[in-house]
Amino acid sequence: MKRQLAWLAVLLVSAGALIVSEVTEPPALTNADRVHELAEDFACPVCQGQSVADSDAPVARAIRATIVKMVDDGATDAEVRDLLVTSFGEDIDYSPSRGGLTGLVWVIPVLVVAAAVVGLALAIRKWQVDSGAGHLSDWKNLVLIGAVVVAALAGVLMVRSTTGRDSADSASGEIRLSTRTLLIEAGVAPPMEAIDLYGKVLKIQPSNVEAYAYRGWALWRSGDTEAARSDLDTAVDLDPTYPDVRVFRASQRLSDEDHVGAAADLVALDGLEAAPIVADLLAQTHLRERVAGGLARSGEILAALELLDAGLDSTPESASLLAERGWLLAGTGELQLVELSLVSLNEAVRVEPDNPWALGYRALVNGVLLDRQELALADAEAFFALAQRPTELAALLVAEGLGPAG
């Protein structure tokens, strides 16, 4: 009997340890940990197989922002869950509640295990009575107790496996892996291959803004302008806050001579938190300045200046923007504005003495509009000494007699 009790004690301790280890989870250490865990516990309301943590859809971004604010304000996980379920319904919650119809998911496994335990107990009791072997009763009681413990452990594990589903156990994990891999491959692939890869991403994840934006850009560069416009417009509709697509569509609209539309995209971009690479792209392509020039040529001089000023608000030391602003003011032909244009041009040269636009524009303003030939020739000489010069600006200086002698 002592030996039987010893085995029973071992069984109970082992089962208890397994149950405790299974139901006990370490708490999140930081607010960021909690936010990430909570976001993974909710499904994106407008996506297929994606959690809030991984979706790029605007509603998912809004939900993440709500979770961040609530966690930072001291809300409990239960309060966050209650708010989101109230706002979006039970389907958003990857972990069903313990009440109502959804609670059956929790209750049914326990009932099944309980029924099995009762059935086993009755069967063993009947076995004892039918055999009449009283001396086996202690051993059979030990078996019965062990069966109950094991059944309880099975019930706990069954409940957790049934209700503990999250995005890592769903198809979204595979979706995240496959789409991210495809996007990385597309980023280094030739244009036509990249277009196919972005298409595969969109078959898996139809709401992927990055795929629409970059496929649209690849289509534009390959000459399929209609498809490009459609993809870029779709990307903006899906997520107006995605910075990359604003740059791409502004370039497309500039090519279409839709200067007003291009300016609208750039103004929207100014209100977003874009990665540094976006600012580099704007500077390299001279996009804002080209759009402003297009607006000025179409008579929208005020809109052009507002676009440049919006850029200068974020990058006040941009020599290129300062130079373009001075050139547009000089283009009005009004003496006061021409004089004012030199303020911007002088500042541009101060910020970047070797900026070709600043030197070239200031040479033209001084030489053509203000008849200050000595100053104009000095700037023109510095301009033509540069290793890289804008071709059209160089041609204009030569045409105005400010080119190199001979």
Quick structural gist:
Helix content is 73%, strand content 0%.
Please describe what this structure looks like.
The chain is an all-alpha fold and 406 residues long. The protein folds into five domains: 2-95, Orthogonal Bundle (Helicase, Ruva Protein, domain 3); 102-163; 170-237, Serine Threonine Protein Phosphatase 5, Tetratricopeptide repeat, CATH 1.25.40.10; 242-311, no CATH class; 317-406. It has 20 helices and no strands. Helix 8 (191-204) packs antiparallel against helix 9 (209-222) and helix 17 runs antiparallel to helix 18 (356-369). The model is unreliable at 98-102 and 161-174 (pLDDT under 50).
Total number of beta strands: 0
Number of helices: 20
Strand content: under 5%
Q: Tell me the series of helices and strands, N- to C-terminal.
A: HHHHHHHHHHHHHHHHHHHH
Global shape: elongated
**Helix-and-strand structural type:** mainly alpha
Q: From the alpha-carbon coordinates, what is the Rg to the nearest angstrom?
A: 35 Å
Q: Could you name the ranges where pLDDT drops below 50 across 5 or more consecutive residues? A: 98-102, 161-174
Distance between the termini: 117 Å
CATH class of the largest domain: Mainly Alpha
**Biggest sheet character:** none
CATH architecture tag of the largest domain? Orthogonal Bundle
Q: Number of domains in the coordinates? A: 5
Q: What's the CATH H-level superfamily name of the largest domain?
A: Cytochrome C biogenesis protein
